[in-house]
Amino acid sequence: MQEPVAEFTKVESIFVRHRNCLMARADFTPIFTDYYLHLMDVGERHPENLDTPLKDLLAVLTLHLTARPWAETIAWTANLRAPRVNFFATGSSVHENIVARLFTKDVREPDRNFLYSQTTVPGSEPRTSTIEVGNVDPLDWIQHFYEQSEQRPGRAFRLPDDTYVLIAAQPDFDKEWFENLTPELVARISGAEETKTLETRKFKFHCGCSLEKILPTLSAWKDKPEELFGDDANLALQCPRCAKKYLITREDI
Prior knowledge:
By secondary structure, the protein is of the alpha+beta class. The protein folds into two domains: 9-205, Hsp33 domain, CATH 3.55.30.10; 211-249, no CATH class. It is 28% helix and 33% strand. The protein has eight helices and twelve strands. The protein has helices at 29-42, 48-67, 138-150, 175-179, 183-187, 189-192, 211-214, 225-229; strands at 9-16, 21-27, 73-79, 86-92, 97-103, 114-120, 127-132, 154-159, 163-169, 195-205, 234-238, 245-249. The strands form two sheets. It has a ten-stranded mixed beta sheet with strand order 7-6-3-4-5-10-1-2-9-8. 28% of the residues are buried.
């Protein structure tokens, strides 16, 4: 009998002793299951060449959030030339949620591929960074992101059974060991190396959007609904984070 899928993805933060590296590891089956259920709800289906990178982006951003301090909300947007799409993902360690969506319409064509990152901490101004990326592989993106924005090496690995691992270097790390890592070696780290679990975080695929949160974006039309609705009785809006559709009426405004 097949075991039920867990309600959340448990992400382990593990210190690899003697190598001075932090390992974030998780089975993303729960998040990917909810991601596909969400696509069914919003009536979307992505081709495999776009679906796989979006799932990879969900995974690596979740692992990156776990490797970072608590109280951060991080949003990543990859604006690509070919295919001309935007990959978007955002997550919060405070609310323990992650969400992503794909934009294929009305996407601005850049002269190069860019990954934009914004990190928000309550009480502080958002921190932003931009890096150039050369392909459609989020596992490669995060390696360049760590080199340029984190100022330390970091590598992500895709293992069997929806398991992903992020290895982030710490001061005085074993550079030769780090650079020679393969998915097979990473899968055996817990048995081959001396490790210590530092903490465990729980993430789920969840946006948190609602009609009440979307309505304030229409406040400019509160006194002129005819300009917004025209001859229609209602208006359909999409959440920019997850693509969920909301039907807005004149009474709502």
